[in-house]
Amino acid sequence: MKSLLFQLILTSFVLLNSDNNVNAGVTSVFIRKEYPSKDIPLDDEAFAVPTGHNVPQQVHMTQGDYDGKAVIISWVTADEPEASKVQYGTSKGKYEFTAEGKMTNYTFYKYKSGYIHHVLVDDLEYDTKYYYKIGTGDSAREFWFQTPPKIGPDVPYKFGIIGDLGQTYNSLSTLQHYMESGAETVLFVGDLSYADRYQYNDVGIRWDSWGRFVEKSTAYQPWIWSAGNHEIEYFPYMDEVVPFRSYLQRYPTPHLACKSSSPMWYAIRRASAHIIVLSSYSPFVKYTPQWEWLREELKRVDREKTPWLIVLMHIPIYNSNDVHFMEGESMRAVFEEWFVHHKVDIVFAGHVHAYERSYRISNIRYNVSSGDRYPVPDKSAPVYVTVGDGGNQEGLAGRFSDPQPEYSAFREASYGHSTLEIRNRTHAFYHWNRNDDGKKVPTDSFVLHNQYWSSSSRRRKLKKQHLRSALGRMIASY
Ligand SMILES: [Fe+2]
188: which of 162, 236, 418, 460 is 20 to 30 A away, CA to CA? Predict the structure, then answer.
């Protein structure tokens, strides 16, 4: 009887922690303490300008190619133009190589940006620590980064996921907790600085302060960017009648490496993951460039090499918060069928300032004339995660629809970040961390089973491969 009870408890635990089940979801009863969601004042040390004439500031990097053997390093010098040059090498203080790039600047209203430098550093070795130096003379600064291992089906890797960060004390807490997580690359789901909440010259000034704010992470590891609504600056009262994107001047992406016509949507492969970045605020209906590109990119995905297929976007497709409810419906109507057909593992979005995770569900049988009108459990569908809870000045989105829809597995209005720790081709550990708990408490976590390799025929194939290589090792040891 006791063992029967134990089995029952074990079965319920496995069911509750699997990503495929559909039970009534959980609306967390946790009440977030009310901290002010005000931006940190400009004279705070979080935004400190490094001392020195023309010293590099706002240093950040992103992946620079398709497979992770390049980075784009960017920074700003405020005082005068100078060469966009990165010196780098594999031992500290010994910079055998030099890469040169481009410098740009822009004017927005009466704000004049500093000199923005972008340098592609390519032909790097995989899985190697590089040290680099930017700036000249006494103003030079030194940093380092680690390249990812060569792409392969069982390469472990840990990603962090952050969205809607802004520059408040809550944002600072998210950033600090993320940096304690041990994750190696950030998947950023849009809405970076919230500089567009300011007016006149303060818009540019708050882009600069945000660049300095995140530098403690972005100078040392790539952040994979996607853009949100706060990356569009449209201010007719300031005579800025053409929508402007400071974001594009400051945060380049490797879109040409994946044949994308725009830096707003692109893909990279890193370790065992194929990551697709979509633009919620660019055209995506049938025959638009983003639609055409995604159709081709999905064909290029090779799950034998990169088993994990991850999609980033800003507006969530499944969201049961009152805020931004149904805003993702147009993209769902266009792309959801592809996500299911190609067995996307997980879709990360931001925009809603709360946390939510879905079960594996789809609504692809719905059409305006007939068909099911509600999402249904679907083993081929991705898990949808909304992690727009970085901590910006707009505060939390505290009101969820009641009752909780069946597709919603867990939701809570707190600040935080997520991590996705890929172990091998079949399993990854997902974890959402609310700011209040520090780094050690997994508030929401589950084991993500790979969509491609969890099919029974592929599992059998994999078991045979493991058996064969184990036998091979045994024979070789005799
Ligand atoms: Fe947003």
Answer: 236
